[in-house]
Design goal:
This protein is of the alpha+beta class and 532 residues long. Helices cover 30% and strands 22% of the residues. It contains 16 helices and 24 strands.
Length: 532
């Protein structure tokens, strides 16, 4: 039985970055409903550092960076797809506008710029300083009861790590957005409410059918529906159908509710799709529990494939490294999944492993087999089943690069992104935490330490992702399009429910969440009748 509920002006499906759009709608006096499939708010955004790649925004300007047109040139260059240029222009415009608007609200306060180099440093317009901004932390006490609704981070979910009295990163952004949204007096949140289908009348989307706490309910939307419910990374059938390699959904860092419900609802009423074979890839370091976590870069050691050979700059920006693993695995005869991260006692003494550099490796790494130890290269080759002579040649070549300080094959340590790892360690098990890197005397390139100090160690690297990036095709107002390019009236999409404006590349830190925020904002402007 379907229960008819009160009508709203705007319905937002999903509570991640699209929650910003919900706030923008409610702050304009539009009665706005957010439905969230799970019992917690925030989706994958809560797992993130909440970076927003917003060139030209006020926080970037306050840092003295005034190169918005260079950023446009850069984005054009790396995406290299003229059909996406209107989306890129809309994204860049919206990023400036939405931050100006949010910073006027006491809940959001002032966003802060963080220097994260852009991921394609040789492209025209690239900036070593980057254009990424972050929300300020917020005290749990300030959020009151709303804090209980915010999804916890991956370390908290998987290992029970206490996050303390202050929320940071994605959790801070979501906590602030939720509080601002509800405080408008025009916002309603329904958790445990899953989208089932879209209501269409005379070719226009006028509401949604959802299942809320076991009951089918219908919510009507006078202005429109925004689908911002993440990708389909947790849907094994969709992964098998659309993605280039079969991977467990447990390998993804997406939120548990991201099974493509919004995507399917759009397809069911004739929406066009794009980039369904794509994802925001990244290397994952397999943990003692058998599941990988985000590995943002490697300071020491090498990755080798099943042939015992290096195949990538191990510190390359994570999306590029993840894509390279997938590309080589699917286009060559050599297996690259899993890849083997080989290092020695020298690196372990400098960096430790799986935690802060001043702490020993936890025993569970060895007990589980997630980290293996070998006294000789012969033993190491047997452990990972690669040809000994190939592995020996690979290590000898790498050691030569360590002596000279120049990685002649893959150029590790030469880009601004790589060089960031000279100074900061990003530990895979706690991707939101940074630790000062210890000094590395005697070697010209701190990212190239020789592998010559037994015993040797090996861990496992697999491709994982931050979510899929293919979805419903949209225009520069975030309107969902039909295959012939006409918009479906009343239907909008943002974030990973929409096909990415950046196409198959990841231009800079904060592009995924930035896209969710920017396009949900543009959707509301269109519904509110606001012109540029």
């Amino acid at each position: 039985m379907s229960i008819n509920e009160d009508a709203y002006d705007v319905i937002v499906v999903g509570s991640g970055g699209g929650l910003i759009g919900a706030y923008v709608a409610a702050s304009r006096g539009l009665r706005t409903l957010v439905i969230e499939k799970t019992g917690l708010v925030g989706g994958t955004t809560s797992y993130s550092g909440a970076g927003l790649w917003f060139p030209g925004s006020a926080p970037v300007g306050r840092a003295g960076i005034e190169d918005a047109e260079d950023a446009r040139t850069y984005l054009r260059s790396v995406v290299d797809d003229s059909s996406r240029e209107p989306l890129q222009d809309a994204y860049l415009r919206a990023g400036v506008q939405v931050i100006d608007e949010l910073e006027k609200n006491q809940w959001f306060q002032s966003f802060v710029y963080g220097p994260v180099p852009e991921y394609y440093p040789s492209a025209p317009g690239a900036s070593a300083a980057g254009h990424t901004i972050f929300p300020p932390p917020v005290a749990v006490a300030d959020l009151g009861e709303n804090a209980r609704l915010v999804r916890t981070s991956i370390p908290a979910e998987r290992w029970g790590i206490d996050e303390g009295p202050v929320l940071s990163g994605g959790r801070a952004l979501i906590g602030r957005a939720l509080s601002a949204f509800l405080e408008t007096g025009n916002g309603t949140l329904r958790v445990n409410t899953a989208l089932e289908s879209l209501v269409v009348e005379d070719g226009r989307v006028v509401g949604v059918v959802a299942v809320s706490d076991g009951e089918r309910v219908t919510f009507r939307a006078g202005r429109g529906v925004i689908l911002a419910a993440g990708g389909f990374e947790k849907n094994p059938e969709f992964r098998e159908k659309y993605q280039p390699i079969p991977r467990s959904s447990e390998w993804s860092h997406g939120s548990p509710g991201n099974t493509g419900d919004a995507l399917q609802a759009g397809i069911a009423i004739g929406a066009a799709t794009d980039l369904l074979d794509e994802a925001w890839y990244l290397p994952g370091l397999v943990q003692p529990d058998g599941r990988p976590t985000f590995h943002s870069g490697t300071r020491g050691g090498i990755w080798v494939n099943a042939a015992g050979e290096r195949f990538v700059n191990e510190t390359r920006p994570y999306d590029q490294a993840g894509h390279e693993i997938v590309r080589l695995h699917t286009t060559t005869d050599v297996s690259h999944i899993p890849a083997h991260w080989v290092f020695d006692q020298r690196q372990l003494d400098r960096d430790s492993f799986g935690g802060p550099a001043d702490q020993p490796v936890r025993s569970e790494w060895f007990e589980s087999g997630a980290l293996k130890k070998a006294d000789t290269l012969e033993e190491l080759a047997k452990l990972i089943d690669v040809p000994l002579e190939a592995l020996r040649r690979t290590i000898e070549e790498f050691n030569g690069y360590a002596q000279s300080g120049v990685d002649e094959r893959f150029h590790r340590g030469e880009t601004p992104w790589d060089q960031m790892f000279h100074h900061v360690l990003f530990f895979a098990h706690l991707p939101e935490m940074n630790f000062p890197a210890p000094p590395t005397p005697d070697w010209p390139n701190p990212l190239l330490l020789p592998l010559d100090t037994p015993p040797y160690y090996v861990a496992t690297i697999v491709p994982t992702d931050l979510g899929t990036k293919g979805g419903l095709k949209i225009d520069d107002h975030a309107r969902v399009l039909r295959p012939d390019g006409r918009p479906i009236e009343g239907l909008y999409a943002a974030g990973n429910t929409a096909a990415a404006m950046s196409g198959r590349v990841y231009p800079g830190a904060g592009t995924p969440i930035g896209s969710s925020v920017a396009f949900s904002y543009l959707a509301v402007l269109d519904m509110a009748g606001v012109t540029d």
